[in-house]
């Protein structure tokens, strides 16, 4: 509570109230030891104080006194954008104003695009197709690249095998093998003949 002149004690007001356009706004101001009547005013940005009508179709004022606490009430039934401002209670026949409440009236953001259900379904279908393509195309590309790399590796291995046997003549190999076989056979026959001749010479000696 805040003490003011003439023994009036002001109660804290709600400092801020935000209301959507065309909605209802309810404000209050409370004090003690003051007069039994208040006048609601709207303090404009220019500093000018505009008194509100006591009663109208759009603006309704009320007053209550309970347990020594006096309160003034202000109801704006359908707020407009120009209702934005600071609202205070001026205690009747005094120069005392309550702390006040800043009322902000805002306009909700409207949809800029109005789409039908069929259009929304088409957009969702197109998004699904694009998402599927984003998954399938990279996978197919990776598979093709892997297959191509596998073919290159097989071709490289085949070339290496061909390089191993390159320069070898199979006919020469076969000819050399036959010569080795014949030389071995001939040497065996020669050894047998030589052994028989040596035996005959031994038998012929007296």
TrEMBL record:
**Entry-linked SMART domains:** IG
Domain (Ig-like): give its ranges.
12-95
Q: Which GO terms describe its biological process?
A: B cell differentiation; B cell receptor signaling pathway
Q: Does the keyword Magnesium apply?
A: no
Keyword list, A-Z: Immunoglobulin domain
Its GO CC terms are: B cell receptor complex; external side of plasma membrane
Question: Would the keyword rRNA-binding be found if you checked this record's keyword annotation?
Answer: no
Question: What InterPro entries does UniProt report for this protein, alphabetically?
Answer: Ig-like_dom (IPR007110), Ig-like_dom_sf (IPR036179), Ig-like_fold (IPR013783), Ig_sub (IPR003599), Immunoglobulin_dom (IPR013151)
Under what name is this protein listed? Ig-like domain-containing protein
Lineage per the UniProt record: Eukaryota, Metazoa, Chordata, Craniata, Vertebrata
């Amino acid at each position: 509570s805040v003490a003011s002149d003439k023994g009036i004690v002001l109660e804290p007001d709600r400092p801020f109230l935000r209301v959507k356009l065309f909605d209802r706004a309810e404000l209050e101001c409370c004090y003690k030891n003051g007069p039994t009547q208040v006048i609601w005013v709207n303090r404009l940005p220019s500093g000018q104080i505009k008194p509100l009508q006591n009663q109208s179709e759009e603006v309704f004022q009320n007053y209550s006194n309970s347990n020594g606490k006096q309160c003034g009430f202000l109801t704006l039934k359908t707020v407009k954008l120009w209702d934005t401002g600071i609202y205070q209670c001026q205690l009747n026949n005094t120069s005392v104003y309550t702390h006040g409440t800043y009322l902000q009236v805002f306009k909700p953001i409207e949809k800029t695009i109005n789409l039908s259900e069929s259009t929304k379904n088409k957009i969702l279908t197109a998004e699904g197709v694009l998402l599927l393509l984003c998954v399938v195309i990279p996978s197919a590309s990776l598979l093709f690249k892997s297959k191509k790399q596998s073919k290159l590796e097989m071709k490289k291995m085949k070339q290496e095998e061909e390089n191993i046997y390159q320069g070898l003549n199979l006919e020469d190999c076969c000819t050399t093998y036959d010569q080795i076989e014949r030389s071995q056979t001939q040497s065996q026959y020669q050894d047998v003949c030589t052994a028989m001749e040596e035996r005959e010479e031994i038998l012929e000696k007296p």
